[in-house]
Amino acid sequence: MRFFVIAAAVLALTAASAQAQMGGGRRQANEAGAKGDNKPKVDEKAYKSALERIPEPKEKYDPWGGARPSDPVKKPK
Q1: pTM of the entire structure?
Q2: Are 45 and 53 in contact (CB under 8 A)?
Q3: How are the residues of the chain apportioned to helix, strand and coil, as percentages rounded to the nearest 5?
Q4: Which of 38, 45, 49, 54 has its C-alpha lying 20 to 30 A from 70's C-alpha?
C-alpha cells in the first residue's frame, strides 16, 4: 500500500512540474495576436534608427582575444 501512495505522489509531482513548464499557451497566443498588428512597424523604425547610431569600430573585434594572444608568436626557421 505504501508503494502505491509513494508512486502516486511521485507521479503528481512530475505532472505538476511538467504543467509549470508548459506556461499556459492559450493565454499567450491570444495576447500576441491582439497586440501584434501595430507594434512591428514602430519597432522596425526604432531598430533601424538604433543601428544607424552605432559607431563604426576602429579595430576589428576579436572574440577570442582574451583566450589567446592578439599577435601570434613567430617561430624561427
Answers
A1: 0.29
A2: no
A3: 60, 0, 40
A4: 54
Query: Using an 8 Å Cβ cutoff, are 75 and 67 in contact?
Result: no
Residue identified by cell 507521479 is 11
- How many helices, marked H, and strands, marked E, lie in the chain? 3, 0
d(CA 65, CA 58): 16
* CA 66 to mean position of chain CA atoms: 24
How far CA 75 is from CA of 66, 68, 72, in Å, comes to: 21, 16, 9
Cell of 57: 569600430
Would you give the distance in Å from CA 18 to the centre of its chain? 20
